[in-house]
Design brief:
Length: about 375
Amino acid sequence: MKKIYYPILVVICFLAFAAAFPQKAKWKGSIEEVDGVTVVKNPKKPIYSNEIVFFNEELSIGKPEGPEDYILNHILSFAADDEGNIFILDRKPYRVKVYDKEGKYIRSIGRMGQGPGEFQSPDNIQFTDQNELMVCDSGRGVILFFSVEGKFLREIKSQMLILAGYTLIDSQGNIYLNKSTLREPLYKFHKIFPPYENSEVVFSFPVSTKRTVPPRRIRFSLLPGDRVVWGIQSEYEFHLCDSKGTTIKRILKEHTAVRVSEDYKEKYFERLPSSFSKKSQNFSQHFPAFDQFFVDDEGRLFVKTYVKLKGTDKYIIDVFDSEGRYLCQTSLKVGDEISLDQDKFVIKDNMLYSEETDEDGFPVLKRYRITWNY
């Protein structure tokens, strides 16, 4: 019996040993210079075949009942400051709720209205390099700035900000936003310069007169050094620009189109206002190449796909290193699966902040500590 069990024990020990260490393969992509731009082409498979990034839940904010300060009605955007305090832009009513790093409610910032420091239809928040809280209010066409303590400081007004949606600002005060108009069938990614009278179009693409579901949009994010990374959802390709707006790198990955699922359609119809006809909804045959992306402090790129991890409610996330090489896959839960909002994940100081829902469907914001093993 010992002779039979010994080989089995050896195999079990080998498998346990192998599982404990990253399974690294040779990267089969390529890097080349094309017209002064570094082009990184990635294969379908990542460098590491097993899990090398782990998320340990440390905090959850949001309750279905109890004190109003801890009830989140609809999370629009969120951010964290250098001290670990958490700022959540909530709807109903519009305001920014502030919590300390232990999840204790501290204060609220802003209120509904059209006066100084008041919101009409805020879209997203961001911390600037000057450690000021920026609130983009496309309803009023303004960007408002507050101190960490909640004091209103100033605002920027621009016609370009009206109905702009997701907006970011770099350390030089340049504003980045997407916008389309009824006058021309184009979807444009703009960079607006101080004093906000002039802008340039970073990229544009034609918009079909027949709206499709899910729509194709431009996603973008800021990197350290006022660099910008952007991509159009119809292609699995990301463009990295320097602080002057010059494209310095393109990151591509082989991609297989994924058919729009019946589960997605059902959830979409659940969210569709009763005034809209279901028959009039024009579903694409396939999902876009990616949904959204976010970056960490080291310049790694996390790309949320439309593919679910088998047997779970989590979505596959493709991770690229700071050089643009396809590093690994991981998976994360998404709260509102049909939402078109971009900032559902934020990484700061090796912490992942994630918008999710609890077991009863109520919105919560969770914080995870990130650890790497490679």
